[in-house]
């Protein structure tokens, strides 16, 4: 395809390629109308130039695209393309049909510029990253199911601070990834949608992470949410990194983390929404972990895990919160229930991991008010009076006490 226009693709093609060579300013729209495309040695769809490509999934159709496990490149030393659908320019996917992509070589769907998903039912299975846009990935709507050998969704532009971002404000997204669920080089922003990271190392990661709305669920072998800048040494990772933060200002978030629940190499802000957090169990990780400052100014928080390396919120917080340290650990699934003096249930949560420490905060938790916390059986009820911004009940199970003059530190 050497010129812009609309091209309708249907039927079967084996060991072939749709090669898009239109110029940079042109728009090529491929309407996949029941297409089955494969090539065991290269990408079945390859945009070789910087033109804009739109894949439209025709209504009521199923389209399947796959490659092989070994590529043959046109010149020695090349390493592109590396996905069944690969474009050097912007790539947009829309329509109401279905698309299945099997990346047996490396990635599933990849753009060297901006990658947008507007609509459609898309299934990706890949040996490497699933959905990858170098400059950005934007998801507006659609149903995406991604199984990836590395990151599920990724943007990796590290030379331009204005790019390398991921923006999600709609859609139903399910990810099982061997590395990170969603990984942005710069900013990761979630404004809406239903995101379920069923398997990952880190659920969501970026230099900055903003969750403003939607539903997010993540099960992780490492941190639930991680914000960090790219650095070269372990010492740099331990420092307060300029411009790095995690901010939760809306939505509903469920994290089940084996390591830190939320780990920011910079700052941590909890401003709104609802956060339910399970983990960690190990003593070497914390429910919250940050290098800069942390503050809570709104929202509902039910977090439970090991006291381990836990940190709590700093003195700039304006919402009151409770820290409950139990003498004995509670098993996974034990119900936490918070009630006021009248017996009104203000919130409840059954953590998915064993826990000995809880951090609780709900709107309207005022100084001087009495609250009750149950952790399973009736006799486990704890009565506590809010003493101010920070109220701590009990001592760390390992006998550690709070560090005297470091707000938020243990």
What topology emerges from the helices and strands here?
Elements: E1 5-14, E2 18-20, E3 27-39, E4 45-47, E5 52-57, E6 62-67, E7 85-87, E8 91-95, E9 98-103, E10 109-111, E11 114-117, E12 121-126, E13 131-133, E14 136-139, E15 143-148, E16 153-155, E17 165-177, E18 182-184, E19 187-199, E20 204-206, E21 208-211, E22 215-220, E23 225-227, H1 234-237, E24 245-257, E25 262-264, E26 267-278, E27 288-290, E28 294-296, E29 300-305, E30 321-330, E31 336-340, E32 345-349, E33 355-361, E34 370-375, E35 382-385, E36 390-393
Parallel strand pairs: 1-3, 2-4, 3-5, 3-6, 4-7, 5-8, 6-9, 7-10, 8-11, 9-12, 10-13, 11-14, 12-15, 13-16, 14-17, 15-17, 16-18, 17-19, 18-20, 19-21, 19-22, 20-23, 21-24, 22-24, 23-25, 24-26, 25-27, 26-28, 26-29, 30-36
Antiparallel strand pairs: 29-33, 30-33, 31-32, 31-34, 34-35
């Amino acid at each position: 395809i050497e010129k812009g226009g609309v091209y309708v693709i249907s039927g079967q093609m084996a060991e072939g390629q749709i090669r898009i060579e239109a110029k940079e300013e042109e728009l090529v729209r491929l309407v996949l109308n029941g297409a089955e495309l494969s090539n065991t040695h290269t990408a079945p769809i390859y945009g070789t130039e910087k033109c804009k490509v739109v894949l439209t999934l025709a209504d009521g159709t199923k389209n399947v695209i796959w490659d092989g496990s070994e590529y043959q490149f046109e010149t020695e030393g090349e390493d592109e393309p590396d996905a069944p659908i690969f474009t050097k320019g912007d790539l947009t996917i829309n329509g109401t049909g279905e698309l299945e992509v099997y990346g047996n070589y490396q990635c599933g769907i990849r753009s060297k510029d901006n990658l947008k998903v507007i609509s459609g039912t898309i299934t990706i299975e890949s040996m490497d990253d699933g959905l990858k846009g170098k400059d950005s990935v934007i998801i507006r709507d659609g149903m995406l199911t991604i199984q990836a050998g590395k990151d599920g969704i990724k943007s990796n532009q590290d030379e331009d601070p204005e790019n390398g971002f991921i923006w999600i404000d709609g859609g139903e997204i399910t990810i099982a990834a061997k590395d990170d669920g969603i990984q942005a080089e710069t900013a990761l922003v979630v404004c809406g949608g239903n995101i379920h990271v069923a398997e990952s190392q880190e659920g969501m990661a970026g230099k900055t992470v903003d969750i403003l709305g939607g539903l997010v669920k993540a099960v992780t072998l490492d941190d639930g949410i991680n914000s960090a800048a790219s650095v070269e040494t372990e010492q740099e990772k331990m420092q307060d990194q300029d411009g790095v933060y995690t901010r939760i200002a809306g939505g509903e978030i469920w994290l089940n983390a084996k390591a830190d629940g939320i780990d920011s190499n910079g700052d941590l802000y909890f401003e709104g929404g609802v956060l339910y957090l399970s983990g960690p169990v190990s003593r070497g990780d914390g429910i919250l972990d940050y290098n800069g400052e942390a503050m809570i100014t709104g929202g509902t928080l039910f977090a439970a895990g090991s006291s381990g390396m836990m940190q709590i919120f700093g003195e700039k917080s304006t919402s009151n919160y409770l820290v409950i340290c139990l003498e004995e650990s509670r098993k996974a699934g034990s119900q936490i229930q918070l009630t006021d003096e009248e017996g009104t249930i203000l919130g409840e949560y059954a953590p998915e991991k064993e826990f000995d420490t809880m951090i609780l905060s709900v709107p309207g938790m005022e100084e001087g008010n009495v609250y009750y916390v149950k952790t399973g059986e009736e006799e486990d009820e704890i009565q506590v009076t809010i003493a101010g911004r920070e109220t701590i009940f009990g001592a760390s199970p390992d006998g550690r006490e709070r560090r005297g003059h470091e707000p938020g530190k243990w």
